Amino acid sequence: MVRALITLCVLLLAMTACSTQDSGGARADRPNRQAEPETPRPTPMPERIRIVPDDYHVPYAGTAEDGRRFFLSDELFEPGGAAYVGLFLWEADGSFSEIRVDEVTRAEDVPPGMAASAGRKDLVKKRLAELGDFTLEPITVEPFTRTLNGVTFGWKATRFQGSLSIHIEPGNFIAYYAPWDGEEYDT
Q: pLDDT tens across 97-123, in order?
């Protein structure tokens, strides 16, 4: 009796495997199909990105005395055009607040598509003083763009070959990618 039950189970398993087989052998009622390559889903636009201060392109990111988040850069530039010192501010919850921008003369010896310090330490000091007692630390903020005098400032989303990046404008010299943790960026 046990032997008959085992035999019956084995037969049922074999029949089930044969009837559900899809890609191995062709059946008269169904053409033999090749599996189609899976199309990667595009990375969704993040609601927030993390910006982590470092000793390279992000020396000033953190929290101002009033609780707002900030990012300050003197490396903003238009290729072949002006340079800027820009202070980007977000509310304590990471929502966009305002931009403060000073246009400065770009050094003549810097190649057109390259980021470089505007050399305006006086403006950087002035903008840092406006923050009060600030703390340099990672911040999590919403990407945004705003146009001032015909120039786009902020964090702009772009897709290249299916990959989403968010880069700083003007200049496109810092690009963040998923997982948006701010630990790494491209320049």
A: 999 999 887 666 655 555 555 567 888
Distances (CA, A) of 112 to 79, 103, 154: 5, 16, 20
SS3 of 12, please?
helix
Burial class (CB in 10 A: 0-12, 13-18, 19+), 20: exposed
By three-state DSSP, how is residue 20 classified? helix
The dihedral region occupied by 113, where left means phi > 0, alpha psi between -120 and 50, and beta the remainder, is alpha
Q: What is the pLDDT of residue 174?
A: 81
Distance CA 143, CA 103 (A): 22
What is the rounded distance in angstroms from the CA atom of residue 175 to the CA atom of residue 172?
7
Cβ-based neighbours of 152, under 8 Å, separated by 6 or more: 145, 146, 169, 170
Query: What's the token pair of residue 168?
Result: 């700083």
Please tell me the distance from the alpha carbon of residue 163 to that of residue 22, in angstroms, as a whole number.
33
State the DSSP H helix or E strand holding residue 151, giving kind and residue range, or none if neither: strand 151-160
Instruction: Return the bridge partners of 69, or none.
Output: 63, 90
26 near 156, Cβ under 8 Å? Answer: no
Write out the two tokens for 136: 């340099």
